[in-house]
Structure formats: structure tokens, C-alpha cells
Amino acid sequence: MQAGKLALVAVAGLLLAGCADTPPAPGGAPGDPYEATNRQIFAANLDLDRMFLKRTAETYNRVVPEFGRERVHDLLRNLNLPVTFANDLLQGEPKRASQTFARFGVNSTVGLGGLFDPATTHFAIPDHSEDFGQTLGVWGVGGDPYLMLPFLGPSSPRDVTGMAVDVGLDPMTWLHFKQHVWWQAGRQYFQVLDLRSRNIDTLEGLERSSVDFYASTRSLYRQYRANEIRNGRPDTDNLPDL
Amino acid sequence: MPNISAILGWVRPAAVALLMLLPAAQQSAQAAAPAESFVAENIDKGLRILNGAQSAQRTTQFQTFLEGLTDIGRIAKFTLGNARRAGSPADVAAFDAAFRNYAEAVYQSRLSQYSGQTLKVIGSTEPNPGDTIVKTVMVDPAQSGQQPLEVDFRVVSESGRLVVIDVAIAGVWLSIEERDQFSAFLSQHNGSIPALVSHLNQLTAQMKSGGR
User: Fold this and answer.
1) Contact list, B112 vs chain A (CB under 8 Å)
2) A60 DSSP β-pair partners
């Protein structure tokens, strides 16, 4: 049943990707034909963040000592490495795949089940993260149209499809043990909390200095994803014409 | 039977062409090195200023530092985009002045978050002659185990001196982000440059009074 659901979301995502040819609304930004709706969802997300997530993240920072928060962070990152490994292979990057494999091996053993990160601190194995949205990008699927999703934030049909496929690529999805659902829910909860708690000042600064916070987020997201897909290689063909 | 003279006919010009290319290649490498040292020296200088205590003097020092390091006028021109052509000279001049103040406040506010960390130059590429992208990595001693943050500086030579015309943080060029924002604002406000100028001035005042 899970596989069936995943397949549905993936197909829906790919169908939406066909909307990439939709022209922008008159006077609208390229690649964002649903801008009006997106702006409304963005405003709603900001309200939810202000009312719930940001406060929880601030409390988390205040109440949990840094040592504890770093352990949670390291554990979560280690649990995501199998998905990165699968996508490294799908993108045809054997060297990066072997680095991911080594990181997982070292951190799961020496790092006490992923609670610590000796792969970085003691073995200097380079770190990177991959997802199926990036894999689709490497395979040539574009990142338009821009979508602002409720709760999940900035995305695109490609990245939505990617998220669904990654659930399938994650071995944790298929390991059925006691309290499996609670464990997965807890993991997702802490993933969001961990990310939000590490970015409180940055996002505040961004919002305070933005001329148009929606457009700023859109630009940041699209450029950042494109950079992730290129694995950091500068896009020298499309440099801004200053 | 291959025509020996025909082969030799193109080998010599090819060899000459190769030899002519070599000095240019060396020149490229040489051009990259000054850009890298330019960035390294100015990073140190800038961080030293930002590491100082928050004060009016620090703000002025950073302002002077930025003006010497960058060509804010050129960045202003780019970020206003097509609206520049449609605007009156007075409006465009007001924008240039407002952008200058806004940019200084934004860079000071965003970069002072990173005080206590260092940027290490790791290399450069030269996509066009005289146009270098210097790659640096931010090293945060406090948050080890994070993927190191990449910060790129785009350095060009202008009237015989080097200037920074753009910065990319994690692959996001600030000039593009700013242009996207300004263009979105203008389309939400009937293309009014005075409205944008007023908004920029308001944001600048808020950032300055917010003590960041």
C-alpha cells in the first residue's frame, strides 16, 4: 500500500512537471505561473512558523544542551546517508558514493550508531547530501514551475516527486519493527526541529533585510537547488551580466 | 601514401599557435593569483573590522571598506534591471543612492553573523578574461561536522584596479537574489521606482536601528 501511494505521488509530480511550459501570468516572474497562490501559502506558512515552529525551536535551543542537540543532528544525518548513497549511484558518481558509504560505515560503528561524526572529525571524509530531486535535475528535469507547499515550503514538481521516491529509497521505510510508525514520525519531527533550530538567526536576518521576502526565498531556493545539482561547480555559462 | 608536405604544412602552424597560446595561459594563471590574494587580504581586513565591538565607528569603517572593495554603482545598475530604462533620471539617481545605503546595511548585517569565523581561499576560475571567481570556504570552529559553507567572490579589473562585483553564498549570487526581489516588488507596485526607493530607505533605517 505504501508503494502504491508513492507511485501515485510520483506520477502526479511528473504530470505537474509538464506545466513547466505554462507561460507566466502577465507581468509575473518567469517560472512561477502560480505566484498568486504561492504567495498566499507562503504567508500562511510564515504565520504557522511564527505561532508554533519558531517558538518550539527557540525552546529546544534553550532547554536542550548543545551536546544533546549535536547528537540528534549527527544521528539524523547518518540515517539519511543510505538515501544519499542510492542517489550518488543513480547519478553515476562512484567516488561520491564511496565517500558516503565510508561515512555511513564509520559513523554507524565508531560513531556509536550515528550519534557522533568521527568521519568528519577524525577521518576527514568529505560530506555531501543527495536526494532524488537532485538526481532528476542531473538527468535533465527542470525546477519549474515554482511551488510553495503548505508546511513543506519552497519546492517544484520535480522536488515533490523526489521526496516521494526518497521515501521508497530509504531502507528505514521497509524495516518493520515495533513502534515503527512512531519512530518514523519522531524522526521527521526532529528533522524539522533540528533544521529550524539551526537557522533562527539567519532567517530572521533574511526576513528583516528583504525587500520582498517571498521573491527572496524563491530566488534563494532556485539558485541553491541548481548549485546542489551541479555539486558546487560554478555555472560559468550563466553568470549574471553585471 | 600520405602527403608528407601536407602534414608538415599544418603541423608547423599548429605548433606556432600552441606556443602563442602558452603565454596567454600563463597570463590567465597570473591574473587569477592577484585576484586570490586580493580576496584573501580583504577578507582578513573585513573580518577584523566586523569583529570589533558594535559602534558607529565600526559602521563607518565597514562602509569605507566596502566602498573601496566593491563597485556598488555597477551592482545597483544590474539589480534595477529593465526598470532602469523606463525610469526618469531623477528616479534612477534616487535608487542608486538608496541602494548604496541599503547594500551597506545588508552586507554589514548579514556578514556580522559570521564574525568569529574565517574564510579560506581554496582556488579560482576565470570564465572570461579579467573576470575571476575566487572560491573560499567558511570554517566555523564551533560547528564542526557541517558541510563547509562555500563563499565565492567575483572579481573584475576596472580602470586598473580589482573590485568585487558579486558574492555567492552556497551558490546563490546576491546580485541575482536582489534583482529578483526588486523586480517582484516593482511588479507588485505598478513599476514605481519611488515606492522601491522609499521601501529601501525604510529597510535601511530598520536594519541600522535594530543594532545589527
Assistant:
1) none
2) none
Q: What is the pLDDT of residue B24?
A: 45
Sequence length of chain A is 242
Query: Contact B173/A129, CB-based, under 8 Å?
Result: no
Q: In whole angstroms, how far apart are CA B129 and each of A236, B25, B28, B35?
A: 12, 11, 7, 12
Top residue of B108, B131, B147, B163 to mutate, by most chain A CBs within 10 Å, is B147
Decide if B207 touches A, using CB distance below 8 A. Answer: yes
Q: Which residue's entry shows cell 505504501?
A: A2
Q: What is the pLDDT of residues A114-136, one digit of tens each?
A: 999 999 989 989 999 999 999 99
Distance, in Å, from the CA atom of B137 to the CA atom of A237, rounded to the nearest integer, reads 22
With CA atoms as reference, report the closest residue to A148 among A238, A29, A10, A2: A29
Task: Please choose, from the candidates A218, A228, A225, the residue with its C-alpha nearest in 3D space to the C-alpha of residue B180.
Answer: A218
| Peptide linkage before A145 cis (omega within 30 of 0) | yes
Cross-strand pairs, B124: B134
- CA–chain centroid gap for A157, Å, is 14
pLDDT for residue A154: 96
Which residues of chain A have a CB within 8 Å of the CB of B122? none
How many CA atoms does the CB half-sphere of B152 hold within 13 Å?
24
What the block records as the C-alpha cell of A69 is 542537540
Query: For B41, how many CA atoms within 13 A lie in the half-sphere containing its CB?
Result: 12
Cα dist from B125 to A234, B48, B71, B89, B193, whole Å? 9, 27, 20, 37, 36
